[in-house]
Design brief:
Elements lengths: L16 H4 L10 H20 L2 H4 L1 H4 L2 H12 L23 H15 L10 H15 L6 H15 L17 H16 L3 H7 L2
Helix pairs in contact: 2-5, 6-7, 7-8, 9-10
Length: about 200
């Protein structure tokens, strides 16, 4: 199998060799094959999530179990480790031993923020995008964190009365201006807690 199958775009987390060994489909021979397999898996997950009561209610969505189930639904046909937290450090994210603690703290915070959808601390968009940013920053899974956090944010914003995001209206997995704008917006949130660029991008 060609090594470049596992080469990631700028700003993405390279796969650990042990994680790369968790590939399920034996027919995948190129990066295009892998991308197609993941996209098909994600498309099925989106259909499932859109009709799932668990994913439509913030109180049910904002649990560790639900986030793990969502990740497994998105990537479980492609990766054996889908839905499980990473067990090693990466170029991004929390130390792997603290992932569960940080995810629980994030979920507890957002549950408080969304307890009364009529009295949110920020707009529905900002609540969901702050959640998205923190989840990406933790990087709980070996791979697929950005895609998982974007779908989770879509489900959350919809659950608190907003509409799903357009995310630049392009494939953010591919190199290009949209991906660069997305990464820059995340870095701005990292560095200055300024969510305006991310909010503008998510609705572009």
């Amino acid at each position: 199998m060609a090594a470049d199958i596992f080469q990631e775009a700028d700003g993405a987390t390279p796969l650990d060799p042990d994680d790369a060994a968790g590939l399920r489909p034996t027919w995948i021979a190129t990066r295009a094959d892998l991308n197609a397999a993941e996209q098909e898996n994600i498309a099925r997950a989106v259909v499932w999530a859109s009709s799932s009561r668990r994913m439509s209610s913030p109180g049910l969505l904002l649990t560790e179990e639900s986030l793990k189930v969502l990740h497994k639904r998105m990537f479980g046909d492609v990766w054996r480790w889908a839905g499980t937290y990473r067990q090693h450090d990466t170029n991004l994210g929390a130390h792997w031993l603290y992932i569960a603690t940080q995810v629980r703290e994030l979920l507890a915070d957002v549950l408080v923020q969304t307890a009364d959808p009529v009295r949110l601390p920020w707009s529905a968009d900002e609540v969901a995008l702050r959640f998205h940013h923190r989840l990406v920053s933790i990087h709980p899974f070996p791979n697929g964190n950005g895609r998982h956090a974007r779908l989770a944010a879509d489900l959350l914003v919809h659950g608190i009365g907003g509409s799903v995001f357009s995310w630049g209206s392009e494939n953010l997995g591919a190199p290009g201006e949209a991906r660069q704008a997305y990464l820059e917006a995340l870095r701005r949130a990292d560095e200055a807690f300024d969510y305006a660029p991310l909010m503008a991008f998510a609705r572009s």
